[in-house]
Amino acid sequence: MSRIKNLEDYAVDYRKSVMDPEAFWAAQAERFVWRKRWEEVLNYDFLDYQVEWFKGGQLNITENCLDRHLLHRSDKTAIHWVANDPRDEDRVYTYKQLHQAVCQFSNVLKNNGVQKGDRVCLYMPMVPELAIAVLACARIGAIHSVIFGGFSAQALADRIADAGAKVLLTANFGPRGNKVIPLKSIADEAVEKAGGVEKVIVYQRTTEEVNWVQGRDLWWHEELEKVEVACEAEIMDAEDPLFILYTSGSTGKPKGVMHTTGGYMVYTAYTFRNVFQYEENDVYWCTADIGWITGHSYIVYGPLLEGATSVMFEGIPTYPDAGRFWRIVDRLKVNIFYTAPTAIRALMAQGLEYVELYKLDSLKVLGTVGEPINREAWEWYHLHIGKGRCPIVDTWWQTETGGIMISPIAGVLPTKPTYATLPLPGIQPVLVDAEGNEIEGKGVEGNLCIKYPWPSMIRTTWGDHERCKNTYFSTFKGYYFTGDGCRRDEDGYYRILGRVDDVMNVSGHRLGTAEVENAINMYQGVVESAVVGYPHEIKGQGIYAYVVCDSSKLEVSTISDLKTEIMATVVEKIGKIARPDKVQIVRGLPKTRSGKIMRRILRKIAEGQMDNFGDISTLLDPSIVESIKEGAQKDE
Ligand code: PRX
């Protein structure tokens, strides 16, 4: 099916998608290989949440990502992998080779007792084997749950236990910049803590030795030798789970967002094709990690469903220097480049000399995702990377939405710095006020909700459907609530203003304030803590922690030691991504008489605004505010 090519196409498609969503999405679904056609396109209830797309349909998503392309694209590059170390050789997989690798690893999983419906956790570096293993799970109907390689043993253990995984896939080590992450030893600790894992299959990324548990640990390459190459795809129902991906919410415990097969497939392919305007011979590069939703939808599934050539990168933007991205773009003639504002800001701070060394004329489309992009970063990206001629697609979406929701369509919809602009066909955004009334018109702000289902929406939070209902469908009755605040301007364009709940966005990573507080509170001697986000030049938001310690602890430790140890505790419990940027030891927190922490005040102090706190007369002890303020100023 063709792509949206101009404004008129967009208007026509958008209208169709609202007038008759079922016909619209059924037409999109026709493009794929189904083993059995669906009986019903959509069945849903937003009040007592449940949703089903393409019910009765049967398929395997990997037949659509791989087998379907073997006729015409078998020698086309599917994945072009670039190692962390620029001296290491690239690895290239054609569609035929990827298909074979996925089938073979599917047999490894089966050989190790993995069956349809089982959960498999993956804690891996960004190597082709990660994508292969994800697809192998999908091929045999196992539910994959990828955990980002930057999470700590405790965080990994919590996720393994919640998913109830019996197999963990990892690597001995994972190179990242000038560091090497000891994935296997972290995995050992996590498996011990979590329980339930019977097999750990280890990819050998480096030559260093690792600890080995006989009977449980298996080498990836040895397992491959034991199996055949062919593997029939398991036939799945459209609503069978495809994966679980953990993300942070406003309570302490991360939630397992569950996506299913048919709708996710249709939507990720549709959005990939349209937003980026991918054309047959384009080289596409998304710099995300497969441990996040962006990597799932726009490194693995979307591009492969569309038969695209993708770059997959193991390293980081600043290693060995800040020209790394641009060097790869130049060398591989990348046409479509998709990254996070935090990376743009970090590279921008390093100066133009790293950009000017490389030819970037292959670029056609630029994208951003994960957090609001500030105007300076947008302009820099547009001018210095896109040379003023590449549209920037500022794509707003979430782990829960599965795919891009509000975004320019490259070259079709006008762009506007800091605006995600317009909803894609099939997406019906609304702004609602605190009472849940829709705010009509233009030049308005409100809570961003979606009022009609789309195919790749979250189906449940793993093991706790009530939580799913409460989080997304109960704040505003009859709507999916995104947790974001949003402005609709005079042109009807949408601008995401950031989270309105207790979720922070640090370098594009989503973290709950409660999650970080729980970690801090585990440090012995901490009485309580409150964490808020504050504006940070590179990370978008930084983490500011206010911590109350008990007096005995204060007597024996220096403030500076306490801060260091508190930060180390957070790294141990969650991972480096959650390490507070600032820790302030305080004598108390500003609480109302009913015991509620007034975060509004803490946010202001973290931002460096030391007055206009509003009414603080309801505080149990208003003098606390003054002492926190003084402490903050002293710490500067
Ligand atoms: O606040 C929004 C922000 O990231 C949140 C979703 O985070 P996560 O589930 O980790 O998914 C990130 C990748 C899709 C959103 O609620 N966000 C995401 N994209 C944008 C954004 N904020 C502003 N502009 C965006 N383009």
Automatic annotation (TrEMBL):
Keywords: Acetylation, ATP-binding, Ligase, Nucleotide-binding. Residues 10-65 form the Acetyl-coenzyme A synthetase N-terminal domain. Residues 69-454 form the AMP-dependent synthetase/ligase domain. Its EC number is 6.2.1.1. GO terms for biological process: acetyl-CoA biosynthetic process from acetate. The keyword Membrane does not apply. Pfam families: ACAS_N, AMP-binding, AMP-binding_C. GO terms for cellular component: cytosol. GO terms for molecular function: acetate-CoA ligase activity; AMP binding; ATP binding. It is an enzyme of class 6 (ligase). Residues 515-596 form the AMP-binding enzyme C-terminal domain. Belongs to the ATP-dependent AMP-binding enzyme family. This is Acetate--CoA ligase. It comes from Persicobacter diffluens.
